[in-house]
Input
Amino acid sequence: MITYAYYPGCVAQESGKELDNTTKFIAKKLDINLIPMPEASCCGGGVIDGFDENLKLFINGRTLALAEKKGLDIMTVCNTCTLTLSEVNEELINNAESLEKTNAYLAQIGLKYSGKVKVKHLLYAIRDDVGFDNLKQKAVRSLRGVRIAPFYGCHILRPSSIVKFDDVENPRGLEELIKVLEGEPVSYVRRTKCCGFQTILVNEAASTSLAGNAIFEAQEKEADVMVTPCPLCHLSLDTYQTVAAKNINKKLSLPIIHLPQLIGVALGGDYAEMGFSRHNISLRSVMAKIRQNEI
Amino acid sequence: MEFKVKVYRFNPEFDDKPYYKDYVLEDFPGMTVLNALISIKSEIDGTLSFRRSCRSAICGSCAMKINGISKLACKTQVGPEIEKFGIIKIDPLSNMPIIRDLVVEQEGFFDKIKEIQPYLMGKSNVGEHADDFHALKEGEKITQPVFFKSEFRNLTGNNDTPNCILCECCYSECGGVTGNKDYLGPAALAKLYRYSEDPRDNDKNGTRLVNGSKPNRMWDCVHCQACEEFCPKGISPVKSIVKLHEKAIKNSINFSNGAKHIISIAKSIGETGGLDEIKVALDTGGITGLISDLPMAFGAGLKGKIPPIRLKLIKDMEDIRLAYKILDLEEK
Output
């Protein structure tokens, strides 16, 4: 059994609870032991260094130190949490001055960080630690005939000097996973582009046009569903899809699924328990397509 | 080894719409994509148009999209591209109008560079640099360099921004510009940071930061990290933009929604340890923003996607409060 310190991030614990629940479900199925981190704080949403660079170091250094104390690597289900924790980890490992000032703070709360923790995203934890072969063996439902558009999101790929999971120019992680589950990956240009989430409250029209155009392109390529490993991308792509459609003046209606939900389907999960009814764009068409394989 | 080059072609004088033309070439060790294009132009098809000059990754002329990514053709070797993609597919840069084939209209990009006033303003009268910057009189020799890199590195703590060659790779890859054509983009904002940090610059009233905080400027960065990832000179404009954010907030230039957004996130973490989705949305967009998003929020609510009205404090919340206290951020 593989054990991780589990860092779900804020959205998975608030509006996107279906992501957290489904992650726990697939972890059980795949023999992954997730140790909760009730003391962990928000990573700062990818923007906290714009408020104070040291605050980013301190709060994320604390999260890393909490995992190190447990002797565990961290597993996340959010791209932005993955990048932020990885950035701070790299900084603390490579910059003695940053490590010293962070440890001076950590000493006051009974913690210390020495740089032993690795930060992994669920997608690559499954690829590298669980193994796609293992996943394939445990799959009980086939996604045969389902055309799935992978949407990576930025922070799981870039900057590749920090997040080193995949080939930044031509990532394959999601496509390989889709194939393992017998689905059909849809090839489209915007699969590695930005969803615009970070400015959704600043410039909604510009922000949602990014998500909208990615959805439109995937629709044009006859995708049945789009899968994303990031809850922030999911908010842009699903929750704001109607707003995006209006802003780019196109008809959009593409179901967007969280990565663990896609895996959960293959592992025989119950649609209701996996929160399929919590999406803005209904997943009914996808469920119908999957059911065809069960007849 | 033979390889295929697929090139975007469009001549508005003759073509109704763009098309791709394939060329087959023979490679040689170390052959660059620019070598390939020059071969095509001189030996196969003289009508192909593209910009190039130095062939040494310093003039920035030959930026184009190679297998979907903005790169300098002179710095990109054919071999690894063929190994990864099996083909060399070439398109003009994105986010700019196309004049012909691989030649794009650069005026919009340079207008945005001009907009940030990329020069030292006035004469500085503070500190050790007080007399460094002045126009040379006839016959006067340079005794103190007006600008040299090692000094700038010390001045700004950022050792890469001056290496920008204005090749537009970052601009072409920028998610912010893709979504909003009026957004200044990474190269211009990195320059804004460089000038706002220069102690020789006589910007006493923080006008650079105030102007930079207006719509379509520093707060419209989508943090996609593409500018850092794809800069052929290893520069990170996004890091400069984040520095601008921090500098603006520390100087209480908080009128933009972007600044309000970050302050609200920081406040939420300081109070609860978590990110209060409702409060952050309200603090950023105000009542108007909330009203305009009501139908969307109502739809999400119907599906049960409602964040908690009041966040539960994380365990050991006093640890986080201590971080704010040490960093003197409690009142901000």
Notes: The two ends of chain A are 34 Å apart (CA to CA).
